[in-house]
Each structure stands twice: as C-alpha cells, then as structure tokens.
Write a structure and sequence with these properties.
The chain is mainly α. Helices cover 84% and strands 0% of the residues.
Length: 278
C-alpha cells in the first residue's frame, strides 16, 4: 500500500482547513451579530423615522386629509419592513464575511469591553440623551483628542456615509408620500428631490460629519482612552472592516427596495382614489 507524500497530505489538510475558514456563516450566527452590534434595534426604528418625517411635513402643509395621511402611514408600515431590510443586510454579510470572521466579531461583542461599548451606545440613543448631547455639542467638540478619535472612528465605520444614505432614502420616501397625498393625479418627480439633495450634498455631509463626531464623543465619554484604542484596533481588523462594509451595502439595497415598494403602493393608492372621485 502506497503512503501519501508529505506535501500531498499538507495540501489535502490545507484544502479542508480553507474550506472551513471560507465557509459562509449561518443565518443564525449573522442574526446573533446583528443583535449584539445593535443593528437589529436600529433597523427596527426606520419605519418610525419615515412616519415621523411624513407627519411633520403633513402638519406643516395642512393640505393632507387625516384619511389620506392614515393610508400613507399604513403604506409605510407595509413597505418599510425591518425584517426585509435585515434580510438584505444578512445576504450582504453572508456574501462577504466568512464563518471565521463572524466568530472573531462575536468574540469581540461578547467580551467585557464589547458589551461596555454596546451598552454605552444604547444609553446614548434615548431621546433624553440625544437632547443632552445636542445641548453640550460645543463643549464636546473642544476635546481635540477625543474629536480626532471620533473622526478616525467615522472613517472605520463609514458612519457619515451610512447616515447620508439613510438621509437620502428617508427624504425620498417622505417626499414621495407628501407629493402623492397633495397631488394624487401626478406621479412624484423623484428626480427633482434627487437633484436637490445632490446640490446640497456637501452641506449635508459637513453637518452629518459634525453630528457623528459629537455623537461619538458623547457616547464614549465615560470610557477610557486606553479602552477606546482597543476598540479602534478591533474596527481596523479585516473581519470588522468586511462586516461593516457589508452592513452598509446591505442597508443601501434594503432601503432602496423599501422606497421603490412604497412609491409603487402609494401610486396605486393615489390612482384608486382618483378613480373613485371621477
């Protein structure tokens, strides 16, 4: 009986090892990471954010009936579905991140420091905390060392870019809902609002960058610089970068589809309303 050559044994072992390393993570492990990182709870807030934006616009315009507003709110609830957006995020993560990467990220978020970071983020996301943060924004920005850290964190997480995408999607969704209610016989001119946002992008980006920096400084103000340095190191790892990049990509896909679905449903609602009136 022939024995396998050492180099063949090595290659066979490596092929098995690599197939395990590069295996796609399970849905359960991805969902666990999304829950641990706070993404699940953040996505759950998106329908409420769009509803709040629409209701504010509706109250300011004064030309949208209560029944039309109620129907559009129902459309938002049916089309901006957190589970569907999370599905797109999950698919994006699964395509870009390996099981080994997921295990590395899980280990971080389940560590004492990972939990301390996550708890600080949750505490800073309440309405009361946000109000307090905005009231002390100027003072927070004077901490130059923490400000520089916040800017580096923004680059690693892509926070400004993600917020800018969310702002675009929310603005288009609110604009579509508003125009469909005010002018049900006309299809909303989405290009107009997109052109307007493009013209304002540099101004929007500067405002968002400042808000993100203030938010990071406020959120992590009670955490030592030594611990924050460890957090920054983690975010710079290949696994964390791939995870965050895939999060942003999946979020873009999910929000874009939600806006398309909402526009389609509101257009049909407007058409039905017009037919009833004619």
């Amino acid at each position: 009986m022939k024995t396998m050559k050492p180099n063949l044994v090595f290659l066979l072992a490596m092929s098995i090892f690599c197939s395990v390393c590069l295996a796609s993570p399970s849905d359960e492990s991805i969902d666990d990471i999304l829950e641990l990182s706070g993404v699940t709870s953040q996505v759950a807030d998106y329908p409420g954010m769009i509803q709040a934006g629409f209701m504010q616009g509706a109250q300011q315009s004064g030309s949208i009936s209560e029944s039309d507003a109620a129907n559009i709110i129902d459309s938002i609830n049916r089309t901006v579905v957190p589970a569907a957006i999370l599905g797109d995020i999950r698919a994006s993560v699964k395509k870009s991140v390996s099981e080994n990467d997921i295990e590395e990220i899980q280990k971080w978020y389940k560590s004492d420091l990972g939990q301390e970071i996550t708890n600080a983020e949750k505490a800073a996301s309440t309405p009361e905390s946000i109000q307090q943060m905005m009231g002390s924004a100027q003072e927070l920005m004077q901490d130059t060392k923490r400000l520089e850290f916040a800017k580096r964190l923004d680059q690693l997480l892509g926070a400004t870019e993600m917020t800018l995408d969310l702002q675009r999607s929310t603005s288009i969704a609110v604009y579509t809902a508003m125009m469909s209610a005010v002018q049900p016989d006309q299809e909303p001119d989405i290009q107009a609002i997109e052109d307007q946002m493009t013209a304002m992008e540099s101004q929007m980006r500067a405002s968002i960058e400042q808000y993100v920096a203030v938010s990071f400084i406020y959120t992590y103000q009670s955490i030592s610089e030594e611990k924050l340095a460890k957090y920054e190191t983690f975010l710079g790892t290949d696994a964390a970068r791939k995870f965050n990049d895939s999060l942003i990509e999946g979020l873009k896909v999910g929000l874009k589809q939600a806006v398309v679905d909402m526009m389609s449903e509101i257009a049909q609602f407007s058409k039905d309303t017009e037919n009833k009136q004619s």
